[in-house]
Design goal:
The structure is a homodimer of 449-residue chains. Helices cover 39% and strands 23% of the residues of chain A. Chain A contains 16 helices and 19 strands. Chain A has a seven-stranded antiparallel sheet with strand order 7-17-16-9-12-13-14. In chain A, strands 8-6-18-15-10-11 form a six-stranded antiparallel sheet, with no helix packed on it. In chain A, α1 runs parallel beside α10 and α15 crosses α16.
Chain lengths: 449, 449
Amino acid sequence: MVACSLIRMTRRSVVNLVCLGNRAVSLLYGNSFRPLHTSVCNSSSQPKAGFKPGKVAVVTKTTRYEFEQQRYRYAGLSEEDLKQLLAMKGSSYSGLLERHNIHTNNVEHIVKSLRREGIDVRVVKRGEYDEKVVRWADAILSAGGDGTMLLVASKVLSKDKPVIGVNTDPERSEGHLCLPVRYTTAFPEALEKLCRGEFRWLWRQRIRLHLEGTGINPTPVDLHEQQLSLEQHSQAHRITTMDSQRRTGTLHESFSKPSLLPIRSLNEIFIGESLSSRVKLKTFKHHVNLLLHRASYYEISVDDGPWEKQKSSGLSICTGTGSKAWSYNINKLAEQAVEEVLKIGKFLTGLDIPLNHEFVEKVTDEYNESLVFRPGDKRMFYSIREPIVNRVFSSSRQRGFANKVCVRSRCWDACMVVDGGTSFEFNDGAIATISMSEEDQLRTVVLEN
Amino acid sequence: MVACSLIRMTRRSVVNLVCLGNRAVSLLYGNSFRPLHTSVCNSSSQPKAGFKPGKVAVVTKTTRYEFEQQRYRYAGLSEEDLKQLLAMKGSSYSGLLERHNIHTNNVEHIVKSLRREGIDVRVVKRGEYDEKVVRWADAILSAGGDGTMLLVASKVLSKDKPVIGVNTDPERSEGHLCLPVRYTTAFPEALEKLCRGEFRWLWRQRIRLHLEGTGINPTPVDLHEQQLSLEQHSQAHRITTMDSQRRTGTLHESFSKPSLLPIRSLNEIFIGESLSSRVKLKTFKHHVNLLLHRASYYEISVDDGPWEKQKSSGLSICTGTGSKAWSYNINKLAEQAVEEVLKIGKFLTGLDIPLNHEFVEKVTDEYNESLVFRPGDKRMFYSIREPIVNRVFSSSRQRGFANKVCVRSRCWDACMVVDGGTSFEFNDGAIATISMSEEDQLRTVVLEN
């Protein structure tokens, strides 16, 4: 109780409450900390009370070392083969092992620090992380990079259960959604600040998804999961949709009513050909062909506007948080492009538009900054990726802000991917309603560096 | 011999030569028609002699009907299930069957027309198309859309063996690389014009690929092929690279010398995470994760310039032919983006830059047209797709023309895809040299509509 004894000296009244451990906290606030939450919503400053969860689930990423081990084991190769193969690929076995150990040590450090504060900790591999774990925990700690953070967040439906990301390999991953990297190895400090209330709550607005019509399969598939769970995966995709429907005789009118998916998107929804067919039907080559060669066909309606046919390399719909991620890379302009546009403008008008590097850079920066918006923003930003324009397909608006986007799939083997991590089938006849709701905010922590 | 008798009346001297059928043609020109070729290179006008091959291979696409049949048969479903499933997906079984029959009838029409001219015809499914077929034929006819045309062309290494595309479903596919659609149902007319020399040869410059280093597998994989050849495919990827190397004990220094791949690219080379791992090791979910979520890491050197680290959603290197295809969609700007750039420019300079629709449209068109170049152009155009810029990765030039591009893979499970149709592994330690050579032109036919 180092952290808390320190705190007692500083702000006894508050701290006595929050440091009584989980039972007391539960009695006073309930596991969902609603009062705390409200107190913060009313003030944009730091919380009046500190925060100390009684039960914390630590969800750990799969390291590349673990990944390579699994895949080569699957291919029937020995540890020796793995070493040779990695050497061939220019990456050293010992190097991967080192990164793996760094991650493992950081996780240990975090878990120890939590237990030292009398917090009940459960360590879960990302593959084992599910709704039960979420229900059990007062707060969930993602131990990995942004990918892990996104998956962890996607399953937390309450806006009161905090999700905190710790970057367990700061040298190698950016971890924009995680705490400042110094807390990775100084986690007790982070705990103290939480206890003292020396932090800010940040509610990140997320996206919810309704699916209706045919050609869908609401069984989510974790794209990050490893080989080990391949069987469940094929099941989710092959068996569920078809055979089981034939058994239950619901092949015709299955999933006709809109259903809210049990997942929220923190970064973006991506719709496109095609991530499931290869698994569902194992037509890999055709599949790859779809992915690389064939565009996605769909109809889109923005804010209840008219339906518009589209053909493109997919469709991205992002949050403010996601506006700095993939969506940014889809939409940002290079100085080169901006310079060429200005050159053409200058040539056509004869006006004295400057083309020096400073100016081009300034225009480029302004343009690209305009693509980023606040994590709390209640609007979504949609981008039609690499639109294909021909007689049939319009490209009136390539992107823009929206409160509601409806998409009707005309794809053969498409799916909808939430935060690059979870996939849902989304084929001909399926309709997705993508929107935002006040309740879908994600509670995260902002700590000063 | 209708077509040719017509011709005799018009241009006896020439026609007697070209209409003697394959044996005579071979004697005079050889199967490669070199003299003809030269005569055309010297004149940009129509050929002095007509063209009539003795042996034509007709390579047919796989229709969606055939595809759906194969995949559902693979999933153990009956014809009845297929009908129900397609209905669920909003596409009718009879509709697919109709498209399939249209294609089949057009192929029949083409084959009959050729045989009526005494031409020796071999009809081959795209899955069966290989080097032997190419060697046998004097000319190769692709019966499908652009996808089929690209695959057919990729295996023709000689610049003297003509490849002609016929669009067998004009209502549904664009077929930019095919003859004008009216010849699909009036193929004898096309033959007459060829015979009479009423056409232009168009030599389309292609890309060649050298691979060296480790982490590669020069066994090509046809991404378009169907389920039926799945076994070969897995073999190409799983067995070849590893087990066989272990058997031969070449695991260490395999593929260290540069090897020229037996394929030419008519549209583009795309390098990126990751199209082979899912097949090689069946780690679908991780794979998808790589594809969607993880960027590609590589180093690039343009025209023997310095190596530069890159991180992006892949790298595309296209020909003049390909500059109208995927590369165009990767690079083109929407009016919306151009308008915003001009707006910012206007705001920052205070200059009276017009922002009316006509002007924005004009700038946009000029910009996008500048992305397209001639099919015969000896230069390549590279595009770094959705580059990711951070402390480590520069984005100095996002795209440009080049005579030679070298790429060093830093990917985990990447591959190099030729014309969206053929895939090669391209992982850590692999180096690709991408260039153009005079010999790699593809001989195609231009017929007026």
